[in-house]
Amino acid sequence: MTILRHAARGLRTGVFSFAAVALLAMGANWGLALPIERGESAASASPRHVLVVSVDGLGASWLTHPPPNLHIPNFKRLMEEGSYAEGVWSVYPSLTYPAHTTMVTGRMPAEHGIYSNLSSREAGKNSKDWFWFSNAIKVPTLWDLARQNNLTTSSVFWSVTVGGPINWNIPEIWDPAKGMAGDPLYVAKFATPGLLFEAALELGPPQGASDDVMKVKLTGFVLKKHQPNLLMLHLAELDGALHQRGPASPEAAAAVEKADERIGELLTAVKAAGLENKTDVFIVSDHGFLSVERSISPNVLLARAGLITADENGNVTGGKVFTMADGGSFFISWPESQNLRADVEAAIHPLRDEGALYGELGREALKDLGAEPAAQIALEAPSAASFDSKASGEVIQKLPQTTGTHGHLPFRPGLAASFIAWGPHIKKGGALGHIPMTAIGPTLLKALGIEKGQLGPHPPLDQIFK
Fold it and tell me: Which pLDDT does position 178 carry in this prediction?
């Protein structure tokens, strides 16, 4: 069995359309029971406000060692006036949904339960579903503790938030039957009732604006209208550009500059909401990127060995083992009751002969990394290569153009994620080297002034606070 990662290439969230606004205006009842329907009744008197902005795919080197002529004045300002890390060690595999969940729980994937982007573990069944729903998270989250401490929360396309106890929630989700193309009506089914309608009346139609621009406008609306204590925003356009053209491309640099523009717009929105003097801003990311020039298909070897089955198009339909291609890594699982290790090792041996592996990780190594407990083996892609899930054709193929991916071991060069803290409660020049991603949640908890409750075992980054 196998699952392909379905990387977020060119993901469009399509926040607004005239049709969507019209339908929302009719007061459509989507029938989804949300934990908090509206946030007004949960208003908080706390003076602390935290804005968390995830710039998906923003590797630390873009900020700490930027290429010549890269224009990122807003990132530079926040780094100079606040505190930042040289890099953040992500999770394994270094993917969007596991990483974002670690940031809000302080726990590794083995504990919080979001092991990858895709949620299905059964071939041919819901193979395009991601971990969208917050009830898949097995441990307390930042928004859980905020609510317990009478603070208000908002999410604007943050990962794994559908159905979560969030006051003003516009979650990241799409119709798996239609692919990752944006569908505002589908998003509206899962958003806080009435919130998108409110925003549409205030903001109007997008008029050709990009997805991240519309997300920033939505964030500005929520900040001004509802002033939540915690707002979490996920910007994804940089990730799409990096997947399509790779991190060394002019398109990647241009996308980083666009992300910097969005940060400037967010700082303006905080000021317009009257929150500038009491809002701490955190810029984070989930992973960096590596360039890809060839694709490797371990499932072809596993199919030849009779360990998986596939249809005429090379789509896996079943088998003795379960595999997941995550770009930079390839996970293989099988039931504990079946001793298949020797068969699997023999099947993938040609990859070693071809120099098509950076390394292999067994159960103990995966346990130490906090990865999915059911995985028996993980293969790590070599330089300039990525794993895919196809089970027919050539094992190794050269790509027609350079692309980019992630999913590798988080400590490989180029994979470190980013962290910047800035605001009235943040020290200038707070010294941080490389930090673990599990430190982010406890730090956000402290920024909110929450003393009751804990996110993971790691202490907050006390040295960044005044």
Answer: 87
